[in-house]
Amino acid sequence: MAIDINTVEEAALEIMKRAAIDIPEDYSNGISAMQKTETGKLPRFVLHAMVDNWEAASKDRRPMCADTGVPRYYVKMGNHASVETGFIGIERALRKATADATVAIPLRPNRVHPLWRTEHNNNVGINAPEIDWSFEPDADWIDITTVHKGGLFGTDYRMLFPGDGIDGIKRFVLDGLIAFGKRGLACQPAIVGIGIGGSKDTCMQLGKQAACLRTVGDRNPDPKIAELEMELKKLGNSIGMGAMGFVGSSMVVDCHIEVGYTHTGGMPVSIHTFCLSSRRATARIHADGRIEYRTDPQWFTPYTRRETVEWNR
């Protein structure tokens, strides 16, 4: 049964609204836990103000932050899913939902041409919104996730080498977080995503996905990577910076790491911070047209993280 393309557009518009207005429960719980441990007066005030702001946004059904970021989509296609008008139809529906959401919610029209600064006042343009695709075996549904992430700061990349090891990664991450905090380049407390390996572009993608597409408390299935996630979270909260850069201990809500096989001579690393709004929402569209909404993208699956070919186990 082919999924109606109008259902895709309906779901995309709805998750745009949810991402802009409603804070994900996992992030909210993470902030609540930080309220109990933060000792600094000013960052504690900021944390309480954040919660008050979220409650007001939810009650008034208005965006939780004036800067609504740059909307983008992550689409996971079940291998057996079929959609009217195909992939081109999905792309068109997502672009139209973005334009409609910019007016209806409203979202701030943040997208402009990089050289001429022209805009269409709808967050749609050349290569905007971005749409990343992934696939899942033995499924006839489509998952559509939207992420509204700030598009300016809170990101860095460095080509390390195998000899730098885990200590080199720790130093890079701590240097980055300190620089973000001192220069006001991130809205912390943040979910920190770290990409390790792959090519340069893959490394950046992995770091952003780690920050935006995993929930607070989720651990990498590799126990050694999971241990490193927890260590980096602890280190990030020990540098003396709290909410919005004030002196405190609430820099990192959680730390997520994703890896990719890389060139033998290098160890590229990227770091990304997902701002204090942590705007994401997901819709699963079933073959019969049912739509289920959630805030956990479930982007990383055993199939996504598969390590080798099926006939070489």
From TrEMBL:
InterPro entries given in the database record: Class-I_Fumarase/Tartrate_DH, Fe-S_hydro-lyase_TtdA-typ_cat
Top-rank lineage group of the source organism: Bacteria
Species of the source: Advenella kashmirensis W13003
Positions of the Fe-S hydro-lyase tartrate dehydratase alpha-type catalytic domain: 10-283
Keyword entries, A-Z: 4Fe-4S, Iron, Iron-sulfur, Lyase, Metal-binding
Family: Belongs to the class-I fumarase family.
GO molecular function: 4 iron, 4 sulfur cluster binding; lyase activity; metal ion binding
Name recorded for this polypeptide: Fumarate hydratase
